[in-house]
Design brief:
About 85% of the residues lie in helices and about 0% in strands. The protein is mainly α. One of its GO terms (molecular function) is mechanosensitive monoatomic ion channel activity.
Length: about 120
């Protein structure tokens, strides 16, 4: 009985179909691992590209801010030399406060816009 089962196992495991299935499964494992590696590298590549874009935009924003500060300092220096420095400093501080208030009002308007009678309608382009 045992000998017959051993012969049957040998015949099954040495058949061409079984060997073909084993080779096919190994090939699928290799291809799947390669696919995962490629997918992972594309994700890493896109993340690095986004980070690089953010760095560039932050650098550009910092340069614009420095340019604005230099211009403002130049204007303050010119006005201080002419004797009107204190008045302009007060005006610039008032302008900054006004900008902050308008920003707050702008966000309040945006919130009100969302509370429209059809909130499911999106008006953004």
């Amino acid at each position: 009985m045992c000998f017959a089962s051993l012969l049957l196992q040998r015949r099954v495991f040495m058949s061409y179909y079984f060997l073909h299935v084993v080779v096919d499964i190994k090939a699928l494992k290799i291809l799947a691992s390669r696919g995962v590696e490629l997918f992972h590298t594309t994700i890493v590549k896109t993340v690095k590209a986004r980070i690089e874009e953010e760095k560039k935009s932050m650098d550009q924003l910092k340069r614009q801010e420095q340019k604005y500060k230099k211009g403002k300092e130049r204007m303050l220096n010119l006005t201080q030399e002419s004797g009107e420095g204190q008045d302009l400093q007060k005006l610039s501080e008032d302008d900054d406060e006004n900008k902050k208030q308008t920003n707050r009002k702008g966000t309040a308007k945006k919130k009100k816009k969302k509370q429209w009678w059809q909130p499911w309608v999106d008006h953004a382009p």
